[in-house]
Automatic annotation (TrEMBL), chain A:
<dbReference type="InterPro" id="IPR001095">
    <property type="entry name" value="Acetyl_CoA_COase_a_su"/>
</dbReference>
<keyword id="KW-0276">Fatty acid metabolism</keyword>
<comment type="pathway">
    <text>Lipid metabolism; malonyl-CoA biosynthesis; malonyl-CoA from acetyl-CoA: step 1/1.</text>
</comment>
<keyword id="KW-0444">Lipid biosynthesis</keyword>
<dbReference type="InterPro" id="IPR029045">
    <property type="entry name" value="ClpP/crotonase-like_dom_sf"/>
</dbReference>
<keyword id="KW-0808">Transferase</keyword>
<dbReference type="GO" id="GO:0003989">
    <property type="term" value="F:acetyl-CoA carboxylase activity"/>
</dbReference>
<dbReference type="GO" id="GO:0009317">
    <property type="term" value="C:acetyl-CoA carboxylase complex"/>
</dbReference>
<feature type="domain" description="CoA carboxyltransferase C-terminal">
    <location>
        <begin position="12"/>
        <end position="242"/>
    </location>
</feature>
<dbReference type="Pfam" id="PF03255">
    <property type="entry name" value="ACCA"/>
</dbReference>
<dbReference type="InterPro" id="IPR011763">
    <property type="entry name" value="COA_CT_C"/>
</dbReference>
<keyword id="KW-0067">ATP-binding</keyword>
<protein>
    <recommendedName>
        <fullName>acetyl-CoA carboxytransferase</fullName>
        <ecNumber>2.1.3.15</ecNumber>
    </recommendedName>
</protein>
<keyword id="KW-0547">Nucleotide-binding</keyword>
<dbReference type="GO" id="GO:2001295">
    <property type="term" value="P:malonyl-CoA biosynthetic process"/>
</dbReference>
<keyword id="KW-0436">Ligase</keyword>
<dbReference type="GO" id="GO:0006633">
    <property type="term" value="P:fatty acid biosynthetic process"/>
</dbReference>
Amino acid sequence: MAVNIGLNLFRHELTPAEVVKKSREDRFFAREIIDGIFTDFIEFHGDRQSGDDMSVIGGIAALNGKPVTIIAIDKGIDINDKLSKRNGSPEPWGYRKAQRLMQQANKFHRPIVTFINTPGAFPGKTAEAQGQGEAIAKSILESMKLTVPMIAIIYGEGGSGGALALATSDQVWMFQNATYSILSPEGFASILWKDSKRSDEAAGVMGLTPKDLLNKNVIEYIIPESRNHPRVFNLIRKRLDDEFTRLNELTPDELIAQRRARFRAF
Amino acid sequence: MDLYENQRSTSKIKRDASVNDRIPDGLFLACPYCGTQMYNKQLGDYRVCAKCGYGFRLQARERVALLTDNFEEMDADIEMTTPDFPGYAEKLARAKSQTDLGESVLTGVANIEGEQVALGVMDSYFMMGSLGSMTGEKITRLFEYATAHQLPVVLFTASGGARMQEGINSLMQMAKVSAAVAAHQEAGLLYLVVLTDPTTGGVTASFAMQGDVTLAEPHALVGFAGARVIESTIHEKLPKDFQRVETLLENGFVDKIVPRAELGQIIAKIVKLHHRTEI
Ligand SMILES: [Zn+2]
């Protein structure tokens, strides 16, 4: 059950279309989240095959003193940053960087936490030539085999396969004003109704809000948002630590079986 | 769950249920790839363009009839509650009656040139081969069956991508099938993918690109994002063979392009070379 925090008690509940709008606003930035929750973050670059995608930030850090691997999709802060990150749309080598860091975490028995904010994987010419589909497919397949706990947090947009690539995890959490969907409401409306202007209506029927997704067991937890960001980060830090501690008690076989069963239910 | 339930044995299914057989022989057709015009009957049994080798889209049952010596269908009638999306139930019903399938994939145990395999064939005539919950369920069960019975999986992909009407559940199928692929892989079993025209979206971004061996039919269109989406994103016209398997082969994402008539032989050969032998 989603628990409303006091702040929101006197506001009306947002409509799905309003949640979509909010999810696209610059409410939280990846680096701010990382610095707010963890200490000693050290960024690692590159996929060791073809390049370094700036839209995927990865590295290691400490969570209450314990090592974790962090992988975050970032939309960027200023206009140049946003352009270089294609508004948070990773290239195949972004997903391959993520895969490399996942394997590294697995080797050193570090839990993995991903932060997701993407309209989707980048639909580009080079992206296709470099195997965007294969990159996502492999991320999903490899994360099904990881013997370390993995928690995914969608903090803005969770767009389609580009988001799923980093969310085939033991748990998925969403910020209160985040979305997770098969495609954008605009795309949905234009494909099904041949009218992208009906996107607000589409948002209403797509079931893309955290509340909808919690009801469907697509996610486990809704993170209440607040203008007081440190409060949000403290809550996430505590919960991550608790859940990783709990998940670490499982044997690798149990962990994998549980993760696969989580998706087998759909 | 009894996997033998709902099995239907069909030996050398006749092709008379297919749309193609309803096309008169004298009808003039144009090859969707090279544009060459020809009479329907010139395509022959395999329905291949005589000029460029492009394989016209087949229905799943037609493919099975052409490819296998024996086929026992599984999970023909599993029912799932479909989401209450306006118009969806009608669309599904129409697709079912048009294709003689329960979903956009046909699964079963097949004999191909003497080799026993777990076979899945997607059907682009069934709601564009989109990935619904039942599609994912049938493919997942195929992998689970193959893992339990130590069989290789041969999967022919054809898909327009996600099943929009099913929303997030469609997305979850990519993960569900991948988990079953992972278990099959860990059992040391062969997963052979045959990419057929068209394979796109969520299917490309999951099980179509997870095979140990990846074959493709000539000139099949295979990609993640739609060409129009890409063109409007990068404001550039895409070259003719963009997202054709010949380009994917060049870029390293396909093992071999095989003309349709030779597929059975090549598949059997690859499966045979994966028989476990004591050395
Ligand atoms: Zn042709």
